[in-house]
């Protein structure tokens, strides 16, 4: 089963959805695309969204859940830190001039950095289809549920 939602602000904690799916003995995949807020390594302007991705896998010991974003710091956490006046950790954002910053307001005017440098940045386009034609940012949420492979009619976990 595949479910898609467009023009949403955010989906919340992706692990929530894939864990429910894995508890039903299915494999869950949840992706979320977003507007551009992550700059490429060495770049000064945002080029990709934070594009969270999560997987939930059934196992004999309970769900195995993987949930991450492709930026070094999540966009919702950036908004929270800006609202509460808390500084950002070192190395997660740049200002509009491309200089490192810990100030959330300057980071919003600039960009977040990718998780894992250039390797993390390459995960961004692969994790979720995101923007509509013409470059207008649109959020796209996708959930997929898949049945694990079976052997002689019994599910392998």
What's the short story on this structure?
It is built from 4 helices and 9 strands; from the N terminus they run E-H-E-E-E-H-E-H-E-H-E-E-E. It has helices at residues 14-23, 75-84, 104-109, 117-127, and strands spanning 2-6, 27-33, 53-57, 64-68, 93-94, 111-112, 140-146, 150-151, 154-155.
Describe this structure in words.
The chain has 157 residues and is α+β, with helices and mostly antiparallel strands. The protein has a single domain (2-149), classed as Malate/L-lactate/L-sulpholactate dehydrogenase, NADPH binding domain (Ribosomal Protein S8, Chain: A, domain 1), CATH 3.30.1370.60. The protein is built from four helices and nine strands; from the N terminus they run βαβββαβαβαβββ. A hairpin with a 2-residue loop joins strand 8 and strand 9 (154-155). The longest helix is centred in the last third of the chain and has 11 residues, at 117-127.
